[in-house]
Here is the input.
Amino acid sequence: METSKDLFKDLDQAEKLFSDGAIKKAQKIVRDVNNQIRKSGKIPNKLRHKFNAALAQSRYYDDVSSFAANPKRNELIDAIKNIVENPSDTPKKQANIIHDLQAKWQLLDLSSRPAGREQWQAFNELTNKAWEPCKEFFDELKEKKIHNAVQRRILITKMNQYVEDNSGKWTDARSLINFINTIFNQWKEFAPVLDKDLKKLRDDYYEAKKPISKEIERQENVVIKAKESLIAKVDLISDEDNDTCIKKFNDLKQQWKLAGSAGRKNDNKLWDKFNKSADRFFNAKKEDVEKDLEALKLLTEEIKNKTKSPSELRSAAALLVNLKQLEMLKMCSRYKNLELPDQFKEIREKCKGIKRKDDPKTQQEKDNEEWNKLDKQLEKYLISGILILLEKRFKNGDWIKVDNIVEGTVITN
Here is the structure.
């Protein structure tokens, strides 16, 4: 029990709170002091006088709050009375209105002195009458909630049975994820349930799901290790021939596809790391291809200007080793509307009509033949070079453009 000295301190604190505007906190202290005084019996007159002053101040604030709150309570009583006399078209809408009025009444009780007995009885009686038309609606809702709880228990039983049947030899993670997702989608359909059932059902659901989630995590960790091992193997590729490096990387990429899923978040991070480790191969290839593309531009100009003989141009074209890739030439057939620039069409037409005054007719025919072959060969080299340049970067619908050489839209079969 607190001493008189402690009670004096409490009343001093209450007085300060009243002056600071913390009325509710001050009133609580005054009530606590009042309880202590009742238990102790006799107290010093000085303490009683101080307590009476604090109690009077507390009652004053009650009267002030009641003066402000009581008219608002009367408005709520009128509103609930209007609902009784003019019920809503739908029980659900009426239930929402009643609930809103009750919430406002409770807020007034929290922010001011509680309502008097007369006001509370009037509001409570009218509220009970207003609820009567909603009874049928809530009975139906209750039946639905009970039904939903039964269906959720069936889903929990289904998960437990699945674990029992498969825990000896689990299926792959993808199938487990599909099973859980299917159960969860059905679970969401059977809502809401009664408040008393909600926590128990939720706990049972997560408990039944736990073994499946653990197995998915275990399998994903195995895949993570496998893919991290593949990334390490890419890091170790260091052949002098860059094409050999790319081939080894592509072989590892096939193993990557067969490794399985490490989970969406993990897969994306690992895939980025895997490709980033191989960027050095393709960057080196890109540099070589860009050099050959520049050389190719010069060859196209020489074809136009006829500054070299066909045999000389053919020898120069043969040096463009980075554009002369058989596998890339085969890929050309996948891109149907990658059109060659007009300059190649013009060259083709000009080549057909080339004649030399100092050469016999048979030589003219041979030269024309050479020009045509060279023209077609350069077309293939150009397309394959573009494909090498953009390998692992192009997508369906991408726009390909090399200034003064070629541009077009990629369309894959």
Observations:
- The radius of gyration is 43 Å.
